[in-house]
Amino acid sequence: MGKLNSKIPDGPLAQKWTTYKASAKLVNPANKKKLEIIVVGTGLSGAGAASALGELGYSVKVFCYQDSPRRAHSVAAQGGINAAKNYQNDGDSTFRLFYDMIKGGDYRAREANVYRAAEVSNQVIDHFTALGVPFARDYGGTLDTRSFGGVQVSRTFYAKGQTGQQCLLGCYSSLNRQISKGSVKMFPRREMLDLVLIDGKARGIITRNLVTGEIERHGAHAVVLATGGYGTIYYLSTLAVNSNASAAWKAHKKGAFFANPSFVQIHPTCVPQLNQYQSKLTLMSESLRNDGRMWVPKTKNDNRPANDIPDEERDYFLERRYPAYGNLVPRDVGSRASKERCDAGYGVGETKLAVYLDFRDAIKNQGKKAIENKYGNLFEMYKTITGIDPYEEPMRIYPAGHYTMGGLWVDYELMTTVPGLYAIGESNFSDHGANRLGASSLMQAAGDGYFILPNTISNFLADEIRTQKISTDKPEFEEAEKAALERINKLLSVKGKQTAASFHKRLGKIMWDFVGMSRNEGGLKKALSLISELQEEFWKDLNIPCSGNEVNMELEKAGRVADYFELAQLLITDALNRRESCGAHFREEYQTPDGEALRNDQEFAYVAAWEYNGEGKPPILHKEDLKFEAVEMKIRSYK
Ligand SMILES: Cc1cc2nc3c(=O)[nH]c(=O)nc-3n(C[C@H](O)[C@H](O)[C@H](O)COP(=O)(O)OP(=O)(O)OC[C@H]3O[C@@H](n4cnc5c(N)ncnc54)[C@H](O)[C@@H]3O)c2cc1C
To answer: Which of 35, 54, 417, 541 is most exposed, with the fewest beta carbons within 10 Å of its own?
Structure first.
């Protein structure tokens, strides 16, 4: 397991996927129904995979902790989903989408996987359209598109500001079709507590029934994790509050390497924190930057209302610094530019930790109705939260934790370093390098689930047709169940005074202050020691009311926070190891004279895949060297 084999097929980049599919082993229909697959997660990736695998004839069991699969976090996605359709005839192509993602990710992603993600993007849009997803259409009836950051074409398909919700409803209907056919069995309100390995292969999971508290065993011939990202490690983030890393973390402790954990995206346009009691931040979709202009006053501490500040006294700082891309620079660049202005004293609002996103000119040029058609629900959401009407006054926005490019290391087949264990969607590290471009996550999640995994998993399962149904009476299940119960009892028996959320909040603050938009060696080391002190306090003073035999959300939270302490330490170790700046990972020691990220391709053009090495022991670093054959590694510039 020690050595990384990314299994990239030979041949020219554009042919690799076709070559792979033509040579991968297949499972015949009669054998498929004897093979069981567990899918954990029902977002675009998990629901997509479960329905595609069910349609193929496998016996699928799918799990989520929500009461309904359609509440998976994908429901929150607002702005859109990319595809290289080139409906606009503006120069788009599979290669250009691939190139934009490689460049946007600051040359820290694997070419072959990224090209394939771009290649299947068109199938994803066709598929969702066939499922009835109500994408916006132009006057001629063709699907409409808009632009997102880091690109110069218009390739983002959208359903107002509810693209994730509409796509998830499409996935949900295809999933339900399989459930009613009997090929997929749905287990809602289940939390995966551990992965079960038998003879080194992933053969099942242990779950807790979140309604009864019962600990359950589930066996299968292969396990797929589609469990989303770990952005809530910052406590305040744009993610659903229950999003967590525990399933991926448990898999990591059972042998799955964790790749680039420090690559975390901070999104530039979020509603700023309003008070210290808040448990979540709200995203204002990147699509708004198609028409909204970001600015701050040219004078420090200018307290005049925004509309009283004349144009010549406004600094449209993105347009000034990045004339080629203007307000549509990638997220990492946009976030740092806002932070730079606020740190320099030009921020607005009471806290001075905000910049303006202004629609005045767009409304003047296109009319209020046109803006309402594109962003109506986002404007309403903003007004409900802040009381400010963005049709009349600019929005105030500030960066917030949003997406994790890091995740479980996977090879070209999306298999982790544990045979038979796959990771898809945001839970893997695969396609976005050190910075994800907007609207490419839904694309990747749905592509992984519907079109890639169903083709690659057969290559593993073809050799499993003689493996009998996995019995959950085996000692490996017993041991994993015992360990899960012991952990629950350990959490319950602390009987201290502080809630899990209060620890999470303090952990998040340390992460935001020292491991957020910019990092330095001193700060990272300080964060490591503060987190280890906090972790010790957690295990001495945690309070969980009630028991494990009933609905107990405090217990759920505590388990997730306990895992976050461990993941945070790996994340910081990774950030310390990567002595360069790339994408969202900005080490203050490594920057150009004008404050841009300074990569070190000589030493760091690799994926850092970390192996768990036992409690209290330093993790082991494995390097997957990145080779760029189709693109040239260049200094990333949006000027
Ligand atoms: C506010 C917001 C807006 C966004 N807008 C866009 C956008 O416009 N375009 C875009 O491309 N991307 C967008 N993104 C990113 C995108 O929504 C996500 O990256 C993507 O939806 C992730 O999908 P997924 O299938 O990987 O996981 P998720 O949708 O996060 O689903 C995770 C699933 O795993 C399950 N799960 C997790 N852990 C366990 C466990 N231990 N046991 C059982 N089940 C478990 C959950 O129940 C859930 O069903 C946005 C993100 C946010 C936060």
So the answer is: 541
Q: Determine the 3-state secondary structure of 77 from DSSP.
A: coil
What CA–CA distance (Å, rounded) separates 400 from 271?
9
Q: How far is CA 633 from CA 118, 434, 590, 602, 636, in A?
A: 19, 14, 18, 11, 9
CA 312 – CA 403 distance, rounded (Å): 36
As a whole number of Å, the CA-based R_g of the chain is 24
What percent of the residues of the chain are helix, what percent strand, and what percent coil, each to the nearest 5? 40, 15, 40
Of ligand 1's listed atoms, the one at least distance from the Cα of 424 is: 26
- Cβ(106)–Cβ(582) below 8 Å: yes
Which of the listed residues 124, 162, 227, 377 should we mutate to test ligand 1's pocket, taking the one with most ligand atoms within 8 A of CB?
Answer: 227
Nearest to 200 by CA among 446, 505, 421: 421
The pLDDT mean for the chain works out to 96
In the reported structure, the alpha carbon of residue 122 is separated from the centroid of ligand 1 by a whole-number distance in angstroms of 21
CA–CA dist 302, 297 (Å, integer): 6
CA neighbor of 103 nearest in space, from 607, 622, 599: 599
Using alpha carbons only, give the angle 425, 114, 134 rounded to the nearest 5 degrees: 55
CB of 439 closer than 6 angstroms to any ligand 1 atom: yes
Residue having the nearest C-alpha atom to atom 20 of ligand 1:
74
Separation of alpha carbons 487 and 121, rounded Å: 42
Q: Give residue 134's pLDDT.
A: 97
Using one digit for the tens of pLDDT, what is the confidence trace for 155-204? Answer: 999 998 899 999 999 999 999 999 999 999 999 999 999 999 999 999 99
Mutational pocket test of ligand 1: of 157, 426, 556, the residue with most ligand atoms within 8 Å of the beta carbon: 426
Q: Which of 70, 96, 293, 331 is catalytic?
A: 331
560 catalytic? Reply is: no
What's the per-residue H, E or C state across 173-228? HHHHHHHHHCCEEEECCEEEEEEEEECCEEEEEEEEECCCCCEEEEECCEEEECCC
